[in-house]
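hiii, so i know i said id send this last week but things got crazy w the move. better late than never?? heres the sequnce for the chain we talked about at the cafe, plus the structure i predicted for it. fair warning i was half asleep when i ran it
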Amino acid sequence: MRVKRVVIGIQTLEEGLRKFAEAADAAIRGERRKREDGVFFTSLEAMRRVLTPRRLELLHLIREKAPGSVYQLAGLAQREIANVQDDVALLARVGLVTLRLVRTPRRRVVPRVPYDQLQVHIPLIYVALAAPSDPQAGEGARHGFPAAPNPQTLPVEEGNFIEARSYLHVGGPRAKPNATAID
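okay and structure toks below
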């Protein structure tokens, strides 16, 4: 059985847009590319805010137990339904969970995780920026890199992640995602 992976990583919005433009140009030239899905965040802190231990547990339960509804998932997780609904909605919004509406006498939303592994890509520059020595600037600021963002100013709901669909390989080992910002 082939293992399905989803790539999760960090890249700036500018990087995502540049790679999108490269992919669009290649498509115009008629070049064929291999497709992979991925989700990219604009900072390590934004990634941490989405991929909490409780949400990772939900991904695991969805993959392993295949619950027939979000209500059933809440029971498996032993959590309040409202909190599970919020977490599943966020995971669906970033592309880590798919939701299917099943019409029965009672409408059900069935969550699915269509992959077996999360493959995390974190460039080392983002690790340095995420661990500031000075509260006002990231460690990378000494080397001319932008200051690490304040975690309190990074609500996930306001576009701190980039979703990449059609994560593409261009002839070599480097991948070229077709990325769009999500707000």
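btw Residues 5-182 form a domain with the Arc Repressor Mutant, subunit A fold (CATH 1.10.10.10). thought thatd interest u
miss u guys!!
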